[in-house]
Design a protein that fits this description.
The strands form two sheets. The protein has a seven-stranded mixed sheet with strand order 3-2-1-4-5-6-7. A four-stranded antiparallel sheet has the order 8-9-11-10. The chain has eight helices and eleven strands. It is α/β, with parallel strands linked by helices.
């Protein structure tokens, strides 16, 4: 059995569905993340073998857990011999310059498998993924080759390694994260001006997605048609859950510059949400 957060990174949910695995979810608060007490209770009452967690710049909520909370989750999982797969794909996209802490920092028992990617920080041709798997390396390699996968171009991998060894990547991240942070703050301010007070866009700690909470009566799936016709791309909340949950939530990509065209789309989005029409 696999434990996932709700909401979760939706490509992972699609993989779990294709493999027909047993899955149980745990609520992830957009401000504080998952509750450690609820996490412990689920591990004690369900035959969970793997927990899929994203504790830094969570997609789509943008929450980053405190170091104390991360340490507690690792300790709880280790006590039950549950493997944590830490999705760190968006870990480099933090708005502040504080030293980055991950679940792997507290992994004294080598129980955390950490996955990441350069997909969102380097050009597409260098968007390789990586895994820090410790004692699980042999098992993962066997699975990798049994599924017909092979390592990609070694020259590109060497080029990425050489680039990371210098300071250029750090400079790139500082510029990228400052730009993303500025656009996110501006986007939330603009959105808040056009939406009623009971609509709450969440300020993320990093990344480029804004998690928008709407009144409980709102059904984002029903509004998808009007949004599509208006040329507005929104990810409805149910996409990030196992069922039809989170129907009054939506994820918005605020990585783009705030041109006049995009400002007009925000106004259209607000009208559709509040009135159900463009």
């Amino acid at each position: 059995m696999v434990l996932v957060e709700q909401p979760s990174y939706f490509p992972i949910l699609a993989i779990l569905r294709r493999r027909a695995l047993q899955v149980v979810d745990i609520h992830s608060d957009p401000v504080t993340g998952i509750d450690s007490g609820a996490f412990r209770a689920l591990l004690e009452t369900h035959p969970i073998r793997v927990a899929l967690l994203m504790t830094t710049n969570h997609f789509p909520t943008g929450v980053t857990y405190s170091p104390a909370q991360m340490e507690k989750l690792v300790s709880i999982a280790a006590a039950r011999d549950v493997i944590i797969v830490e999705n760190d794909m968006f870990g480099d996209l933090s708005y502040d310059d504080a030293s980055r802490i991950t679940l792997k920092h507290f992994d004294a028992s080598d129980n955390v498998v950490q996955i990441g990617s350069f997909e969102f920080t380097l050009p597409p041709e260098y968007g390789y993924g990586w895994i820090a798997c410790g004692r699980h390396k042999r098992q993962l390699l066997v699975t990798h080759y049994m599924n017909g996968h092979r390592l990609r171009d070694g020259f590109i991998q060497r080029g990425i390694a050489d680039y990371l060894a210098g300071r250029s990547y750090d400079r790139l991240l500082r510029k990228l994260n400052q730009k993303l942070g500025d656009r996110m703050r501006q986007g939330i301010a603009i959105l808040s001006q056009h939406l009623p007070a009971d609509c709450r866009p969440r300020q993320p700690a990093g990344g480029f997605m804004c998690w928008l909470e709407l009144p409980s009566s709102t059904n984002m799936a029903q509004l998808s048609g009007a949004l599509f016709e208006a040329g507005i791309s929104v990810l409805p909340g149910p996409l990030f859950s196992l069922g039809d949950q989170k129907g009054n939530y939506a994820a918005l990509n605020f990585s783009f510059p705030w041109t006049e065209q995009n400002l007009n789309k925000i106004e259209q989005l607000a009208r559709i949400i509040t009135r159900g029409e463009p």
